[in-house]
Amino acid sequence: MRTTKIILLCLFVFGLLSGIALAENVNVVRKASFDKANQIIIEFIEEIEEAWAKDVNNFYVYQKINPDILIGVSKVELLPDKRTITLVMSEDLNKNEVHIVGMKNIKIGKQTFPKLQVQVKKFYFGYLFSIFIGAMLVNNFVFTKYLGLCVFFGTSRKKSTAVGMGITFTIVMVFSAMMSWFLYQFVLKPFNLSFLQVVVFIGMVSLSVQAVDTILRKVNPVLFKAFGVYLVLVIANCIIIAVPLILADNEYNAVESLMLALGAGLGFLVALFLMSSVRERLELALVPPSFRGLPIAFVTAGLFALAFMGFSGMSLF
Length: 317
Description:
It contains 11 helices and 8 strands. The chain is α+β, with helices and mostly antiparallel strands. The chain folds into 2 domains: about 30-120, Immunoglobulin-like (Sandwich), CATH 2.60.40.1220; about 125-310, no CATH class. Strands 1-2-6-5 form a 4-stranded antiparallel sheet. A hairpin with a 2-residue loop joins strand 7 (about 100-110) and strand 8 (about 110-120). The longest helix is centred in the middle third of the chain and has 30 residues, at about 160-190. The radius of gyration is 26 Å and the shape is elongated. The N and C termini lie far apart (about 55 Å).
């Protein structure tokens, strides 16, 4: 009992000290953000000493996920307001990762701090939006990764079937991805069972598809018959398996996983709608006999893939 009280007291003191340190960070640094490809801007609440600010030895930078690998600081620039500095790094920064900027012997106004650390990361809602747009357009799973082509070519002959399949696929995608994320974070990782993730994810996808199959059979029999065997093929769809694997590898949280799954599902819907629109027109076109059917569909998909290459490298935030 006495040992428990001592441990609780130590935890309380540690939490109090951590809170004080955090408060000092908040009171000292007003803002820290990325600027250009290799620059970080830090704004303090008061004027800082010029000699300290321009000494690169007072700063160190690393990615939060790789604390042992320091990123070299080649130059520090102090702006005329004497409150803002620009750290110029020796290499371009991966702005998708959280960076830690450490500072030593900080002299701010009349105060001196032996050590200070601040986090630098992208605007979070912008980061979420970039995950969503990336999965839907920039890295469209059909036109850039060539996944899910079996269902894609099989259900893209008519717009009605394509839209229905896209909506159904998105629902299954979101549900299975969120369940897979939950199992990965709270079952597989804690018990060191990550090597079973492929088996578990396939099981979750199968369960999701079976649920949608049963519901669709009762709610909309016409759409169920239009899908035919392709609804069952969703179980083996590469996209619906790839998304849980990607969110597990990138250690996305629940909201980021939702954005990835929703973007992947809507990206598949966009691909199906575009393809079905063209294939309906091709039914009336004078296509050479040797290219009718799947051959011209593959040619059309290749042209769409070339068009989607225009999104490659796009960064909104």
